[in-house]
Design goal:
Layout (H helix, E strand, L loop, with lengths): L2 H6 L6 H8 L4 E5 L2 E7 L6 E7 L5 E6 L10 H8 L6 E4 L11 E6 L4 E6 L4 E8 L1 H13 L9
Antiparallel strand pairs: 1-2, 2-3, 3-4, 4-8, 5-6, 6-7, 7-8
């Protein structure tokens, strides 16, 4: 599975289109009214991508997780080379617990719904995501207010 395959799959398509392009998922989870399809690496040692489907089984978001050997694993490559045409703002994950400070941050182009989750200490990309601009705005608000901030814990 490549990032190019994921980029070519538009949001809003039916679940059958996801299966046709990506194959059947390795795992399915129900979370908050959405179905999350998880795809692992070919050796099944780590998650490679995920796709969120709404109740109508339409694609509402997609996430790619780069592996260390890929250029997309370096956040500078992603935001300065691959997606240089986007206008990214940086969202730092706040200190949501008394003794916890996150090393994560999010590059986000709200207008397009593109986001890049990265580790500020290692400068490595953890995930590249696509969703609607409205959903990305909501995710940013959740991050800033520490609501549903499970992805900040590392």
């Amino acid at each position: 599975m490549s990032i190019q395959q994921i980029e070519q799959l538009p949001l809003g398509v039916e679940s059958e289109s996801v299966v046709k392009m990506m194959g059947p998922p390795d795992e399915k989870r129900e979370v908050g009214g959405e179905t999350i399809w998880i795809y692992d690496t070919s050796d099944r040692t780590m998650q490679r991508a995920s796709f969120s489907l709404d109740q109508k089984r339409k694609l509402v978001s997609k996430t790619f997780i780069p592996i260390e050997s890929e250029p997309e694993s370096k956040v500078d490559f992603v935001v300065k080379n691959k997606y240089y045409q986007y206008e990214f703002g940086v969202v730092d994950f706040p200190q949501c617990g008394m003794d916890y400070v996150s090393s994560r941050a999010l590059y986000a182009d709200v207008g397009s719904g593109l986001s890049v989750l990265y580790n500020k200490e290692s400068n490595e990309t953890e995930a590249i995501g696509w969703m609607s601009p409205a959903q990305l705005r909501q995710d940013i608000e959740d991050i800033k207010s520490c609501r549903n901030n499970a992805r900040a814990k590392k």
